[in-house]
Amino acid sequence: MPTPNPMTVDRLVNILIRSQTPKIVVEGEDDVVIYRELVRQIGILNVVLHAAGGREKLLRVYERRSEFAHVPVAFIADRDMWVFTGVPAAYAGIIWTQGYSIENDLYADADLERLLDERDIVEHGDIVDSLSTWFAFVVEETLAGNTPRLDFHCARIVPPGQTELDADFCRDCGFRVPAADLVQQINAAYQRLLRGKLLFQLLVRFLSKPAHGFPRASLNHYALYNLALRLPGARPLLDRLMAAVRQNIAEQRTVSGRPLPNATV
User: Cα dihedral sign for 164, 170, 176, 178?
Assistant: First the structure.
């Protein structure tokens, strides 16, 4: 069923043009779930979050920022494949995640793997090895100008009860063995470079085991997002993003020379 009133580039630009208070534009609704809680916890007041409806739409809105220059707007986006190649200079004004996505930054900050049972650590590592191999293939295909599908669930790539890539899945997606050095690069920094949604999906697989005591019926990657946001401890990657938002909005206020009503950042 189509989403009612889907966000378009023109619609979001018009919203920003009519705005009188600072805005934060993120990619999608999943991102809003994470950033809304961060904004609440860090105490950034009177800043409204908007989901652009995807990365490409966010980039198109950013390219039209001169149309709403009167209002401070901070853009936050996932690096995605640019984590391997670098961000183009044209988008240097966007606040980028440190890792592949906001899920990666959240996962790394929360140190969620401390929740694993010691008996699961080796199996978890073996599956991460396999996922790193598959993802290296996806990276190579993407950098070669192809458009491989990457939104597979972890269970499709490495089914429960296995630690190796599923043979049928590999055949269906045209998998070939990628360069060993790229596999090693991803595997060595998997919390930053391996697609974050896969990391959360894999952790759900292990934490769903009865020994962990989590309510299995309600445990999914969204529940783990909320858990990660509430675990005590330092959050250097997420704090970095929020600090960049504060600075970005403050700098835009200075340039415009127009103080905005009810805007405390």
Answer: negative
Contact yes or no for 198/10 (Cβ under 8 A)? no
Distance CA 53, CA 25 (A): 10
Distance CA 146, CA 148 (A): 6
Burial class (CB in 10 A: 0-12, 13-18, 19+), 130: middle
* Model pLDDT for residues 146-199, shown as the tens digit of each residue: 999 999 999 999 999 999 999 999 999 999 999 999 999 999 999 999 999 999
Q: Count of CB atoms within 10 A of residue 54's CB?
A: 12
The encoded tokens of residue 180 equal: 């060993």
In this structure, are residues 22 and 265 in contact, taking their beta carbons and an 8 Å threshold? Answer: yes
Task: Identify whether the C-beta of residue 35 lies closer than 8 Å to the C-beta of residue 49.
Answer: yes
- pTM (2 decimals)? 0.90
Is the distance from CB of 129 to CB of 178 less than 8 angstroms? Answer: no
Which segments of the chain have a pLDDT < 70? 1-5, 44-45, 211-218, 256-265
Domains and CATH numbers, the chain: 9-102+235-256 (3.40.50), 112-230 (no CATH)
